[in-house]
Each structure stands twice: as C-alpha cells, then as structure tokens.
Amino acid sequence: MTKGEPYQQFDPELQARRKYIRQELKKVNNYDDNSKVSEHLAQLFGDCGKDLFVETGVEFDYGYNIHVGDEFYANYHLTLLDTCPITIGNHCYFGPDVGLYTPVHPIDPKQRLADVELGKPITIGDNCWMGGHVTVLPGVTLGNNVVVGAGSVVTKSFGDNLVIVGNPAKVIKTID
Question: In this predicted model, what pLDDT tens digit does every residue of 158-172 receive, in sequence order?
Fold first, then answer.
C-alpha cells in the first residue's frame, strides 16, 4: 500500500488500524489544550519535528505514513489521507480545511467493484503556506517556499518559490 501498489482497503489489519486511529482522534479532537493535541499527534505520526501545533478537527487514516518537519501549524479541520506517505517540510503553515489525499481509486469500474485501491505519495517542501480549503491530490510534490492560494486544487507538482492558485492550480507569481 505505502509503495503505491494495489491493495485491499478492507484488509483486517488496515481496518483495525483505522479503527484505532478513529478512537485516538476522538481524544485528540476533544482536548482543550493544544500542547496535549500536539503531544498525542506526535505519537501517532510516523515522525514529527519540534513545534507541532494543530487545531481541532484533524483527521487521518493510519498516521504512520505522516512525516512532519519542524515548526508546523495547521488550522481547523486538517485532513491527511495517508494511504501513501505524506511528507511535510519545515516551517509550513496550513489554513483551515486543508486536505492532502494520497488514495487513488481505479477508473476501471471492475477494479472499483473489487475494492482495489492504490495510492501516490505527497511531498510538501519547506516554508510552504496553504490558504484555506486547499486540496492537494495524489502524487503531488511542492517545492520550497510555495504559497497556495485559498480554494486551490493542486493536481500536479510545482517547483520552488512560486505562488499558485486556482482549480487546477497554476503559477501566478514567482517569488524572489
């Protein structure tokens, strides 16, 4: 699964992990103290740098495929569908309702009926800022110093020092 190969989403081991994560996220999302939120999430993520700060409403599938660098801030309602690895660099800020989605459902209806799924990793570079309601699709890599405008849908990869906006997201400015 984490290598992007076909897998069965209803595999008992995967279902058990998703159930465990749902139970843990109920606790996380009910803490009043953000330091408790950060401490608990750091235990559920694959790895996590210093100064993690995530507001309530975080959701993800497995946790062990999430890798977050130092100084990460996410506003309310962060969704990280981590079928494949999600890697977030240092000093990144995410607005409310940001979603990073690694699962890929087959276009072929026979494969969908067979509950076959795939995934593609997402990598976010250092010093990235995503506005509210940004969606990042499977297989996307964003370079360092990228700003993604609110409401954008990022369907392909982009390099460093850019401002991207729209659906699908396009470069509107280069950052010096």
Answer: 999 999 999 999 999
